[in-house]
Amino acid sequence: MSEEETRKIQFTGKSTYIVSLPKKWVGDLGLKKGDQILVQRKGTSSLQIVPYNTRIKRESEIATLEIDPKEQPSSVERKLIALYFLHFKTISIKPIKGRITPAQRTGIRNAVKKILMGSEITAESSDGITIQILINLVELSVVGALKRMILLAKSMQNDALLAIKEGNTELANEVINSDDDVDRFSFYITRQLAIAIENEHLLKEMGFQ
After folding, report:
1. How far is Cα 191 from Cα 100, in angstroms, rounded to an integer?
2. DSSP assignment letter at 140
3. Tell me: the pLDDT tens digits for 114-124?
4. From the centroid of its chain, how far is CA 200?
5. What is the number of alpha carbons within 13 Å of residue 129 lying toward its C-beta?
6. Contact, 134 vs 115, CB < 8 A?
7. Nearest 5°: phi and psi at 207?
8. What's phi and psi for 47, nearest 5 deg?
9. pLDDT in tens, 119-168
């Protein structure tokens, strides 16, 4: 039996629609009559059916990062990147004690602007900062991000050679700045692949199956 089948929607009673499932699929998943399944709406054009007892168990889409006032901004940045890879949708940063230092706040703003693609600071004060991850697979595919990263890297290579040939320090500095954009695409691709690995239908849509 293939991994795709066409099934007709049946109408029963006065207000219920039903869809039958292939017997082999039910058996392969260890399901039986009476077991519960979770039906999720995915956007405006698809539905996902998941065995209720094997659904992804995630208590929250919010991660809380507690930092020490003595912690270096670079350390905070690395922790932010790690949480970004774990595909949390909201990251809340709070001081363990006292307040977030000006240097830490600057480091966090720079990370959001230069590294964490699709992220925005939605609340900011010395008592806490909230970062929202807004971008998703529909808005920018992994293939699209990879192509843009390759084009940018090629452009950087050409500019670097030209800067050396002409002794142009301004152009050389621009190449250095562009490196942040390449990193942004790289981190974004890593994040999206981590999301897709937990959702097999996304892997198929992305051409990896």
Report:
1. 27
2. S
3. 888 888 898 88
4. 15
5. 24
6. no
7. 85, 20
8. -125, 150
9. 889 888 878 899 988 765 556 777 778 888 888 888 889 989 999 999 99
